[in-house]
Design brief:
The chain is an alpha+beta fold. The protein has 2 domains: 74 residues, Ubiquitin-like (UB roll) (Roll), CATH 3.10.20.30; 139 residues, Molybdopterin biosynthesis MoaE subunit (Aldehyde Oxidoreductase, domain 3). 24% of the residues lie in helices and 34% in strands. The chain contains 5 helices and 16 strands. The strands form 4 sheets. It has a 5-stranded mixed sheet with strand order 2-1-5-3-4. Strand 3 and strand 4 form a beta hairpin. The two termini are 28 Å apart. 35% of the residues are buried.
Length: 234
Amino acid sequence: MHITIRLFARLRELAGTDRLNRELPDNASIADLLDALQTEFPRLTEAIPRTIISVNKEFAGPQTRLRDGDEVAFFPPVSGGSGAGDDKFAITFDPISLDEVAAKVVRPETGAVAVFGGVVRNVSAGKAVEHLEYEAYEEMAVAKLRQVAEEARQKWPKIVDIAIVQRIGHLEVGDNAVVVAVSSPHRNDGCFEACAYAINRLKQIVPIWKKEVGPDGSEWIEGDYLPTGSDAAS
């Protein structure tokens, strides 16, 4: 069977490519594919224990059986293009305006809007940062942004609307990297809580990564959360 493989961030650099096409025996599992990749690309072995796996843009595990035509992606824990997504859930290379994202969630019944803006800073873990390079598995990232919003709606049903926009590519110090906006009829109807939930959940399950670049070199920043099948969209 034919399998398409996508590699992102540090794994892409270790393998020296972002896409592979391979033929596997029928009924092969992701574990079988991982074994084959580590044999072909020994440098991947160091990263495999903390690698997140998706099949057709949904989280999967090593025992998942593959089918002909599947797209399997391997990427590190998230740390966070090209117009991917719709107006309210987007991955973009363009600068992000807090006011423009906030305006997307204002409706006639809106009485409160909470906005979070993540900004590139000039220091991280005591090291100077000159700029960031963001990368995303864009198609899956947009789907997961929508999932984050739906989870927030279920927790705070009085929410009027939600918008989440993430920038990727080259970002300078002071640039907006991500903006989350949540509206509700009143300030006590969940907009603050939902906004905080959305940015924290984004950093768990949305496949976006950043590389910090400074005078001492560059480093991919990986999160601590390892999604499982329970993080799949319901």
